[in-house]
Amino acid sequence: MTMDQEELKKVLPHRAPFLLVDRIDQIEPGKRIVGVKKVGADEFWCPGHFPGRPIMPGVLILEALAQVGAVMVLKELAAEGRIVLFAGMDKVAFRRQVVPGDELRLEAELDRMRPPFGRFNTRASVNGELAAEAVMKFMLDSAGAGS
């Protein structure tokens, strides 16, 4: 199964400039998902992080990973339109810079899910080189209203 950004908008509540996933390339229901973010020179953070040498902020890489994981969770639970919230992160590591022109491969593997809580292992890479990784804990917002 693949999804383009229009299909992603049917599942995720995020919108520009904070929808940080361009497409989903693979979904193994309840197991694993792979998405892509093409990092452009026109990203909202480029002028300020850092002037003359833009580097994608690590927190946005983590957010992109979380969005990919959220797609898998929302599809698995048939909860499209609800909100998946961060509940914590462990083992966060940044291994290389991500810059305009890079294509960021975003992978999330479901480790545990006991609704409304769960955990997935995530990895972001560029051309096969690890850029970031984290164990992300999440909570499905029961009301879908956020907090």
Write the topology of this structure.
Blueprint: E1 3-4, H1 5-11, E2 23-28, E3 32-38, H2 58-76, E4 84-94, E5 103-114, E6 117-126, E7 129-140
Antiparallel strand pairs: 1-2, 2-3, 3-5, 4-7, 5-6, 6-7
Describe the structure.
With 147 residues, this protein is of the alpha+beta class. The protein has one domain: Thiol Ester Dehydrase, Chain A (Roll). Helices cover 18% and strands 41% of the residues. The chain has 2 helices and 7 strands. It has a 7-stranded antiparallel sheet. The protein starts with a strand and ends in a 7-residue tail after the last strand. The model has no long low-confidence stretch (mean pLDDT 94).
Task: Name the shape in a single word.
Answer: globular
Supply the CATH superfamily name.
Hotdog Thioesterase
Mean pLDDT: 94
Tell me the fraction of residues in β-strands, as a range: 35-45%
Strand order of the largest sheet: 1-2-3-5-6-7-4
Major sheet: 7 strands, antiparallel
Reading off the top of the CATH hierarchy, the class is best stated as Alpha Beta
CATH architecture: Roll
The CATH topology annotation reads as Thiol Ester Dehydrase, Chain A
In helices, the fraction of residues equals 10-25%
Q: Element order, helices and strands?
A: EHEEHEEEE
Taking all Cα atoms into account, the compactness measure Rg is 15 Å
* Broad structural category: alpha+beta
Number of domains: 1
Tally of individual helices: 2
**N-end to C-end Cα span:** 31 Å
How many extended strands? 7
Q: List the uncertain runs.
A: none
